[in-house]
Each structure stands twice: as C-alpha cells, then as structure tokens.
Amino acid sequence: MSKILVTGGTGYIGSHTVVELQNKGHEVIIVDNLSNSQIDVLDNIFSISGVKPEFEQFDLFDREKTLDFFRRHNEIDAIIHFAAYKAVGESVENPLMYYHNNIFSLVNILTGMIENKIDTIVFSSSCTVYGQPDELPVDENAPIKKAMSPYGNTKQISEEIITDTLHSSKLKAILLRYFNPIGAHESAKIGELPLGIPNNLVPFITQTVIGIREQLKVFGDDYKTPDGTPIRDYIHVVDLAKAHVIAVDRMLEHKNKKNLEIFNLGTGNGYSVLEVINSFEKVTGEKLNYKIVDRRPGDVTEVWADTKFANDELGWKAEKGIDEMNLSAWKWELALDAKKKTK
Ligand code: UD1
Questions:
Q1: Which residue from 13, 82, 86, 88 has its CB within 8 A of the most atoms of ligand 1, so it is best to mutate?
Q2: Ligand 1 atom closest to residue 126's alpha carbon, by position in its atom list
Q3: Ligand 1, atom 30: nearest CA belongs to which residue?
Q4: Dihedral sign, Cα of residue 246, residue 247, residue 248, residue 250
Q5: Is the sign of the CA dihedral 218, 220, 225, 230 positive or negative?
C-alpha cells in the first residue's frame, strides 16, 4: 500500500481515480481548491469505497502553501496531478488565468517533490497535443502540433516542463494523453459536474434531455467523415481511472522502462457526433432535441488512438463501449436530477 497525492481529486477524472486507487488498497490524500468541484464528492467517494480520503483545500499555484503542504506530508509516495483548468473557450478569453494556474501549479508541485524526495508523478495530458494528426490511429510518436488554444498549450508546456525536470533530477513520470473521457461511475454517485453551460458533447446531451438545456447544437455536418460530423475516441472515465492506478503502480514497483513514459488512453474506436447521439437515444429510449449549426472554431475532423502501446506495456485495455458510456452518463444525470428535486 502506498500513499498517493491526487491533485484535483474532487474533480471528474480525479474522483473516479481516487475510488480506483482505494479499491487497490492505496491511501489517498486529495488537494483541490474546489474551483470546479464540490466538497460533497468526498462523501460520495466514501459511500462507494467505504473510505473517506484525506483532504486539503488550497491553490496549488500558491507556492508557499504548496511547499508547506509537502513539508507537512513527507509520507507521500507518488502524485497523480489532475488539478488544472480545462475549458478551451475560456482559455482563449483568459489565457493568463490558464497559464497562471496550470503552469505555476505544476512548477510548485515539482519543486515540492524534489525538496521532499518524492520521485513519482503521473500527469494528466490530452490528445489535444496531436492537433489533427497526419495519420490515424494516432500513436505516441506522432508529432506534437502547434496548440489550438492556451488550454492546449498548457498541456504541451507542462509535458515539456516535466521532461526537462527529469533530465536534471531523479524524478520519473508517466504522461497520460486522454482522448475524450465521458460517462460516470456505475453507482451514479460520482460523475461530471460541469459549472454553467457544458462545453463538451455528452454533458450537453444529458442536460438537454433532462430539460436543463433546450437544444443541442451539433457543430457542423460538412466534415470529411462518413456522416459529415467529427469523429472522436470516447473513453469511459472508469477505464481511464484504472489506467492511472496501473501507471502509478508501474513506477512504484519499478516496472517502468524509462524515466519518462507516454501513453495514449483511448479505446481505439472513433465515433461521430451523430453516432454518439444515436447510441444515446438507443440505450436510454429518450429523444434528443438537436440541430445542425456551423462548425465550432478549433475542432479537428477526426482523431482516435492507437492503443497498442498502452495495451502491451501497461496490460490495460478500455473495456466499456459507447453504449455503456452513454447509459452511465444518463444514470448520473438522472441521479443529479433526483437529488435536486429532494432539496
Ligand atoms: C475538447 C477540447 C479538448 C479537451 C477536451 C476535454 C476543443 C476544441 N477541444 O475536446 O482540448 O481536451 O474537450 O475537455 O474544445 N460537439 C457538438 N456540440 C456541442 C459540444 C460538442 O457538436 O455542444 C461536438 C464537437 O464539435 C466535437 C465533439 O462533439 O466534434 C466532441 O466535442 P467535445 O466534447 O467538446 O470534445 P473535443 O472538442 O474533442
């Protein structure tokens, strides 16, 4: 059993990862500033795993607080770093907020790690670093393309900061490049909680069907894909969470082959926007109100993962299909709705 610091552990992917870490017997301490998540997530984690994780609330971009935290917690064995802003549009509006939070937090964490001789970190990166890849499926050696947004740039810069830091220290890191995480835990006790209007497809679908939003806008049907809508590799958040546990254990058990390893996390299957909608309607029996509108600036046409390296090296494979992803997302929305009505 190891003690893992999960930054952003009350957030969407973070909370699912905390549960999977606990399922494997790890002890978890969460740091989160609750800027995009809620404190009740801790109780919800407890009601799934039977263990309430330790928790501290502060801003990781605050250097003094972060270094003080590390001095007080020299029992930490490894870090999984999720805490970051992630809304593409917002990052275009307010780039400095994104650079300030996402970059300073990482620098402070790495500094705290070196000072306190913690040498293991898993970093939450994104397939956004590949832009529109020249070849599909996209593997980990595909070239990094110029970022389309400050958000995407913070992921690229963060990968570089970690890489440079490894060269001059004893640190080891695994960078996990996620494709499109959707869905929720089967208990419907944790899931995605978008603040305000969702930017991402599936939360927008579930909010529209439940009646919070009037209509989903499908951003363009004139792409060069079979049905004209863009194709993505959607991956169930629980599958994604499990990969984090494998990645951190790999380093803690000294099974990593290099100090820096990079894995794509997807299913290897691409679905168009209309295929996601069809699957959602089929598994839920609900009808979605949507209309086709203009393209959204910055969207790539199609991207899906080559999963071979992650499958072979991590011994990990995404198990859940698109129908299961949609159904779990819908059950989560229904659970949120039921909770709202009893308040
Ligand atoms: C987006 C980000 C990506 C980030 C990821 C996870 C952009 C350009 N990319 O990925 O950097 O890592 O979220 O946060 O924003 N769609 C609609 N209507 C909607 C919403 C989405 O048609 O209301 C379509 C989009 O055009 C896209 C697909 O659904 O084709 C998926 O969109 P989304 O869920 O936002 O993910 P990405 O854009 O792939």
A1: 88
A2: 12
A3: 230
A4: positive
A5: negative
Instruction: For residue 251, tell me if it sits in a domain.
Output: yes
The whole-number pLDDT of residue 258 equals: 97
Residue appearing with tokens 């499908």: 218
- Ligand 1 atom nearest residue 299's Cα: 8
- Between strands 180-182 and 78-81, the pairing is unpaired
Domains: count for the chain: 2
Does the pTM surpass 0.85? The reply is: yes
Output the pLDDT for position 21: 98
Whether residue 125 sits in one domain with residue 166: yes
Q: Which helix (H) or strand (E) holds 4?
A: strand 3-7
Q: Do 169 and 211 share a domain, yes or no?
A: no
In terms of domains, do 40 and 75 share one? Answer: yes
> What is the helix (H) or strand (E) element at residue 28, kind and residue range?
strand 27-31
Give residue 34's pLDDT.
98
For residue 292, count CB atoms less than 10 angstroms from its CB and return exposed for 0-12, middle for 13-18, buried for 19 or more.
middle
Number of alpha carbons in the 13 Å side-chain half-sphere of residue 5: 28
CATH number of 276's domain? 3.90.25.10
114 within a domain of the structure (yes/no): yes
| CB atoms inside a 10 Å sphere around CB 245 | 21
Residue numbers in the chain where pLDDT is lower than 50? none
Q: What is the pLDDT of residue 195?
A: 86
Q: What pLDDT is recorded for position 343?
A: 78
